[in-house]
Amino acid sequence: MGDVLAGFHAVWEFESDSVLIRYERGIRTPKLFQALGERRIPLSAVEGVTLAPGRRGTVVLRLLPRAGADPLVEAAAGQLKDGSDPYRLVLPAERETLAEYYADELKGLLTESGPVERHLVAAPEAPLSFKAYDGKASFDGTAVQFRWSWTGASSAKWKAGDQSLAVTDLSGVEWRSPEVFEGHLRLVRRDAAPDAPVQADQDPAAVVFGLGYGPVHESLPFAAAVLAAVRTRGPVPAVPAPPRRDPADIAERIRHLGELHQAGLVTDEEFAGKKAELLAEL
C-alpha cells in the first residue's frame, strides 16, 4: 500500500506485508508509546481490524493481534488501559471515511488467524532496567538481575541475597500492572514447585512496584523482553563477572543486615554467612 495515516500520538505506515507504527514524542503522548518508539507489525501477526467511534469526536482504528504473536501483549495480559494500547490509532471523526478505507484494505490482506506458537512481533531490545520499590531489576539479554534495596526489600529477600536468574532457568514471567494494588514482576522458574506462589514481597524471584516505582513504560517492555528471550531460549554465552561493589554500599548493606539480626529476623548463622558474602564482594 505504501500510504501513511497520521493520528493522535502515532503515525501508521501501511506496507504490503506489515504496518510500521511510529509513536510521537510529546508531553501528551503516553509514556509507553514514547518508550516503544516504533514497532513493525507483520500482517501475519494480525487477525482482524476494527473501526469504532471514540471519545470527543474521534474514531479509533485498531489492529487485533493474534494470541501469542506479540510478547508485549502477552506480558500485559489484558491489563493495559485503552489509552496505552499500542494497537489503537485515534483519529478526528472527520477522517472516518479515510480510516474506513484503510481498514477495508487491511482486512483484504489478512490471511492468518488463531494462536501462534512463536512471537511474530519484535520485543524491546536489551539491555533494560528499572527501579522497583524493593530493588533494581536489570536484563542484559541472557539473565535477569535483582539487586535489593535496603529501604524496601523484605527480610526474606535479604536472606536470599541479590538474584541472578538465567533465561534458560525460566519458563515465563508474570507482570501485574503498577496501576493496580500489589503490582509486581515475577520470574517463573522452570523448576518451581507447583505449590501456591509466595507473596511477591517475600519471593526472591519477584520485585514489587509502588507509587513511582516500576511504571508501565519501564516494567512492561522489560517483562516483554524477558518473555521473548524465554520463548526463543538458546545457549547462553558466558556473562562477565560483575564489577566490584562500592565499599560504602557494602557497609550500608552490612549495617542493615545487623539491624535485621538485632530485631531477631536473621539468625546468628544467617548473619555471619551473609556478612561474609558481602565482604567477599569488596
UniProtKB/TrEMBL annotation:
Transmembrane segments: none annotated. It holds the Pfam family SHOCT. It comes from the Bacteria. Residues 252-279 form the SHOCT domain. Residues 12-106, 137-226 form the DUF4429 domain. This is Tat pathway signal sequence domain protein. It comes from Streptomyces yokosukanensis.
